[in-house]
Amino acid sequence: MLVEQKKIDEAVATIIGFGGTGILNCVQCGACSAVCPGVKAGFPLLCRNLIRSLLNGQLEEIIEDSSSWGCQACNRCTEVCPQGVRPQEVVFAFRRYQANELAFSTSAVTSQMNLYETGHAVFTDPKELRRQVGLPEVPPTSAFNKQAQEEIQALIDNGPMGELGLF
Ligand code: SF4
Ligand code: SF4
Asked: What sign has the CA pseudo-torsion 68, 16, 97, 111?
């Protein structure tokens, strides 16, 4: 087996192991990139481009790229993919690989701090808006549940993210 093929196999196995299980079904049609807000916002390594790099075995070459942290998890890519690849899961698999290797984008610091403190990567206090539409001010989420927050913090503290010393 060529060294290059071994490298490709390792990259694909790594991404599948982190949850990007549909990666090998990609036919590079580009439908996902055409609807991806992250791509439109200028993050080059999402959807088709990310999958192409991974299928070329370039896991180490792209590890420092911050594009994966620009994914909004909107799943438009998942809806349009004719192959059932679920590109968002490939993006998140790559993000998990990056986090596991401590290749952590500075652009993600705020969202990680939010996650640690509230259980939500994007968090704004909803009380006023909920009051305006007649809902109870406090929603049943980890942001208002001390025990859930402590469990989230224990998970983060004991995983690779905890080694970053951010929290
Ligand atoms: S839409 Fe699906 S098959 Fe087409 S490039 Fe994206 S992931 Fe690959
Ligand atoms: S889920 Fe992420 S990769 Fe997929 S279209 Fe939305 S922003 Fe792009």
From this structure: positive
Band of pLDDT at residue 99, cut at 50, 70 and 90: confident
149 in contact with ligand 2, CB cutoff 6 A: no
Ligand 1 binding pocket mutation candidate from 12, 23, 25, 32 (most atoms within 8 A of CB): 32
- CATH number 1.10.1060.10 is the correct assignment for the domain at 5-100: yes
Cβ neighbours of residue 152 closer than 8 Å, sequence gap 6 or more:
115, 116, 119, 142
The model carries a pTM of: 0.75
Q: Positive or negative, the Cα torsion across 151, 154, 159, 161?
A: positive
| pLDDT tens, position by position, 49-90 | 999 999 999 999 999 898 998 888 899 999 999 999 999 999
Q: Strand runs (DSSP E) across 33-152, as ranges?
A: none
Question: Which sequence spans correspond to the domains of the chain?
Answer: 5-100, 106-162
